Amino acid sequence: MELEGRGAGGVAGGPAAGPGRSPGESALLEGWLQRGVGRGASGGEAGACRPPVRQDPDSGPDYEALPAGATVTTHMVAGAVAGILEHCVMYPIDCVKTRMQSLQPDPAARYRNVLEALWRIIRTEGLWRPMRGLNVTATGAGPAHALYFACYEKLKKTLSDVIHPGGNSHIANGAAGCVATLLHDAAMNPAEVVKQRMQMYNSPYHRVTDCVRAVWQNEGAGAFYRSYTTQLTMNVPFQAIHFMTYEFLQEHFNPQRRYNPSSHVLSGACAGAVAAAATTPLDVCKTLLNTQESLALNSNITGHITGMASAFRTVYQVGGVTAYFRGVQARVIYQIPSTAIAWSVYEFFKYLITKRQEEWRAGK
After folding, report:
1. What pLDDT is attached to residue 257?
2. How far apart are CA 95 and CA 268, in angstroms?
3. What is the pLDDT of residues 324-363, one digit of tens each?
4. CB 83, CB 342: distance < 8 Å
5. What gap in Å lies between CA 255 and CA 235, rounded to an integer?
6. For residue 63, how many other CB atoms are within 10 A of its CB?
7. Cβ–Cβ under 8 Å, residues 84 and 141
8. How many CB atoms lie within 10 A of CB 184?
9. Residue 33: strand pairing partners
10. Is residue 239 a contact partner of residue 275, using CB atoms and an 8 Å limit?
């Protein structure tokens, strides 16, 4: 519905003037007049103006255009919820991935595929064994993903305005994803170390506090960040590929950037699969650094494995080139639904929070 254009005389009466005008129309027109937009062209009638088209209330607000001052909070809340749900739902597959990346697994922990591994773990070690360590993962995922998405959204917009004003820049998307990874991994790395040690076959740790205490006492505080550089080396290219692929697919499947669950799920799944397959060798090295796998340590290696170069060398010595791709099937299977869940939940909560903010502002 389009509001009626008013001449100079109509405007002079003020927004409250005029027969039959509802309070909502008066408020909308008043705000429009105060902003001074919609003036007629120089060749038009003096003082003539044309108010903007009113948005269909059923269509909802543009969730990409968040209210000023609430953007960071919205992104952090939506990101935290998305991260926790993603890790909780996919945690059993993550447990399988960690075990399948073992360089010299125990004979009882050699698995042919993801489903067989999950079935054997449940049958031989108990129904809840694949969930051990979930609590520390959820605790770390909340703040890590809050920082991750808030940083990404802020930098994406800032860099896009510089590189490609008024448009979308793949370079900006990739760069924003890389910087966001620095914050995410700094918050998540200690939880990753504890989680993966609890996931390993015959892990001596049944509680998070036992694992944290043992690592601290035996290896020092630095052990919680031993794999940080390798994690960054893996996640920086992973997130660059991930975000660039996601934004590229969104341009094709959702060019208007509206809330579209199917496009978010499809784009997220494809982006996760591509990025996961490309960075599997780095993930294998990260797992080795986190777990300090005893059988690998006994393979002509003395002391703790520290640093990416040492991890790469150990992986090759123990299993050759093929060892770099251990668990690639589980990693891709994990990432496809994982990134689909993360993006769809994130976009949903971003849309929901934005809609509530707009409704609150409209009711003031």
Report:
1. 82
2. 22
3. 998 888 899 889 999 999 989 998 998 888 888 888 888 7
4. yes
5. 27
6. 20
7. yes
8. 28
9. none
10. yes
Tokens in use for 56? 């269909």
Is the pLDDT score of 3 beyond 60?
A: no
- Report the C-alpha gap between 318 and 310 in whole angstroms: 12
Nearest to 89 by CA among 141, 38, 37: 141
C-alpha to C-alpha distance for 281 and 313, rounded to whole angstroms: 12
Instruction: Report the length, in residues, of the chain.
Output: 364
In the numeric block, the tokens 């543009």 are attached to 62
Phi first, then psi: what are they for 334, rounded to 5°?
-70, -45
Give the three-class secondary structure for 341: helix
Q: Using CA atoms, how far apart are residues 263 and 11, in angstroms rounded to an integer?
A: 44
Q: Grade residue 23 by pLDDT with cuts at 50, 70 and 90.
A: low
Give the Cα-Cα-Cα angle 62, 64, 70 (nearest 5 degrees): 105
Beta bridge partner(s), residue 5: none
pLDDT at site 61:
46
